Amino acid sequence: MNGARKDTHAAGHSAVHDALGGLAVSAAGYTLQVGPKAFEVGREEAFGLRILDKAGRAVRDFDEQHGERMHLIVVRRDLVHYQHLHPSLDADGTWSVPLVLPEPGVYRAFADFSVGGESLTLSADLHVPGEMGLASLPDPTSVARADGYEVELDAGTPTAGAESALNFRITQEGQDVEDLEPYLGALGHLVALREGDLAFLHVHPTGGVGPEVTFHAVFPSMGRYRLFLQFAHLGRVCTAAFTWEVSP
Ligand SMILES: [Cu+2]
User: Fold this and answer.
1) CA 79 to CA 108: how far, in whole Å?
2) DSSP string, 162-176
3) Can you give the pTM of this predicted structure?
4) Of 104, 99, 108, 110, whose CA–CA distance to 134 is shortest?
5) Closest by alpha carbon to 63, among 110, 8, 117?
6) What does the alpha-carbon distance between residue 33 and residue 52 come to, in Å, rounded to a whole number?
């Protein structure tokens, strides 16, 4: 579930973790194993994943990060159909969660977790056969609509390699939303994916009071990124997506 949680570590939390991850199925001695890898369009499957150590044993001891021990992000490779899920861990070290992939195409599944104090994002492709309507990345914009909310992004002019502040302001019918609810130990959750290779930047708020949520991120290179902001209000989690262009 994605409900409100008690903040465990928003204060003093490092603003930027791994600048870059999500490009490999194996890193730092850990390997991601997923199944099934092929889905039928729109049909719910029991999706499972395991993190194997160097000896091939399933890891069972994970650190809590942002109120959960495993964050699963699934997005189609053209950066549509974003999902953020929290699987549950079985006794044998398998994380499982019901998963529906809504349209044909190739999806990237990112397992974002921490073991022994080290944060890692490993990823694997999932396939949905069928005729795929390819979406082109929407043009960069500073306003996105999500479930009846309007979200405005002010990030100045981000430069590759330098820390950027990203400020989101959430309104509803022209009124500031001042009573944002905690989500994953903070006022919002942001995932940034780079166009082209889906490099994964996982950033968290460094502050914010409703209606504003602020993050810091380092964009590793010039180019376009898709930002997925999630926030909670009135017991619901909403997702707003932005295309953001980073200058050299
Ligand atoms: Cu999560």
Assistant:
1) 9
2) SEEEEEEEEEETTEE
3) 0.90
4) 104
5) 117
6) 7
**Cα separation of 84 and 240, whole Å?**
13
Q: 153 forms bridges with which residues in the sheet?
A: 168
Specify whether the CB–CB gap between 76 and 106 falls below 8 A.
yes
Residue 2 Cα to ligand 1 midpoint, Å, equals 8
Q: What is the rounded CA–CA span in Å between residue 119 and residue 66?
A: 12
Q: 125 - beta bridge partners?
A: 108
- Confidence band (pLDDT; 50, 70, 90) for 14? very low
- Scored b (16 or more CB within 10 A) or e, 19-32 reads ebbbeeeebeebbb
- Eight-class DSSP state of 221: S
Give residue 72 CA to ligand 1 midpoint distance, Å.
6
Other beta carbons within 10 Å of 85: 17
What's the 225 CA to ligand 1 centre distance in angstroms? 19
Quote the ligand 1 centre to 71 CA distance (angstroms): 4
Give ∠ CA 31-86-68 in degrees, rounded to 5: 85
pLDDT category at 43 given cuts 50, 70, 90 is very high
Give the pLDDT confidence score for residue 181 in this predicted structure.
Answer: 93
